[in-house]
Amino acid sequence: MEIKRYEQEIHQGLHSWAEEHAEANPDIFVTLDIDPVKYPYQAVGVRKVTGNPISPDDIDKIAFDLDVRYGGISRSISSDGRGLKRIGELLNDNNNVVLATGHSEIRDIGLIMASLRSELVKRNYEFDTGIIVNAMVKYLGVKVGDNVLPALDVLGLAADETYVNIPNTNSAKDKIPIPRRVISFHNHAMVEYDINGRFKNTIKKDQRPMLLAVAMSGTVIKPLDVEKYESKLIAGADHIPYISEVFRHKTMVSGEVGHGILRIMKNAITVPSVSNLRRSNISVDLSDSPVAVRSREQLDAVLETINKMEAKSDPEHNYVYDRYGNLPVKRPRKNT
After folding, report:
1. CB 293 within 8 A of CB 270
2. Are strands 283-286 and 269-276 parallel, antiparallel or unpaired?
3. At 19, is the secondary structure helix, strand, or coil?
4. How far apart are CA 80 and CA 102, in angstroms?
5. Cα 275 from Cα 270, distance rounded (Å)
6. Which of 164, 237, 306, 314 has its CA 20 to 30 A from that of 213?
7. Contact at 8 Å (CB) between 4 and 315?
8. CA-CA distance, 200 to 226, in Å (whole number)?
């Protein structure tokens, strides 16, 4: 397996990335040592981790202890009877469902996935839960009471399967300096064999349908770097969308979406969703208009839908989808 030739570079790059997140979120995260013997999930070839979900009441208690905002997340999701019922009906009809979320911070998708699973199970829907995460999560520990547990073990309390993706975006190139083809091969195998293989078992009715949580952009939404954007605009750079001067200083950029996401969506029904965890009035919005995404144009339409939902949830900002990965953004010193 070619990826093993770059084991040291992968460990060091992902570990450094995890350190940034732990430093930026010291209330919940610590960095684990690089130790694939102690933490087998850290082996570079691992693409899928099987969990053992616990009861909704236990999930709710642990998640609330980890982040008090979970209470607001659960109240928002529980009150969305129409959205919950629509997702439940899709699962009951043996459809895999992709929860396509906006992504504002590292922990949002995990909290939302846990709450959504809890609320659906309480309503007696039967399904499995999955989530796609950045491979740097292999090197994060979570503070649970007086203990530190590997983040992948904590996710496994709510997810039947956690899929481990090595980011291949422009922002990841400097963090993991290995050939792009190696990362592409890993991610392709994760999509085709692990996720789509699982989805096709649902279609054949060999396994229960899956609710899969996916952060669409693969990196958190970031503010536009206006100075660099205007320089690119003046220079006539390719694939730079025009943003009105009125909106530039309040524009938030959601990053490019890989082709693997489209391949996953072709075997599922997609439900766009967004969350606002930055205010006291926490909200999670589930679209009640699911979409069968079968083409790049339909995928782009889902991204535009998510941006509109983000703007409605957070009217103080203007949201733009970076279709080609060319929009310059401001990068916090210790976050991604």
Report:
1. yes
2. antiparallel
3. helix
4. 18
5. 16
6. 314
7. no
8. 44
Other CB atoms within a 10 A radius of the CB of residue 86 amount to 19
Beta strands in 60-112 (DSSP E): 97-101
Q: What would the two tokens of residue 107 be?
A: 């922990």
Report pLDDT digits (tens) over 30-84. Answer: 999 999 999 999 999 999 999 999 999 999 999 999 999 999 999 999 999 999 9
DSSP symbol at 238:
T
86 HSE (CA, 13 A, CB side): 17
CA distances from 264 to 22, 96, 200, 303, 323 (A): 30, 10, 10, 15, 18
DSSP 294: -
The CA dihedral of 303, 304, 309, 313, to the nearest 10 degrees, is 100
**How many Cα atoms sit within 13 Å of 264 on the Cβ side?**
30
Indicate the burial class of 111 (C-beta count within 10 angstroms; 0-12, 13-18, 19 or more): buried
* 223/255 Cα distance (integer angstroms): 11
Tokens for 194?
A: 């692990």
* Rounded percentage of the chain residues whose pLDDT exceeds 90: 75
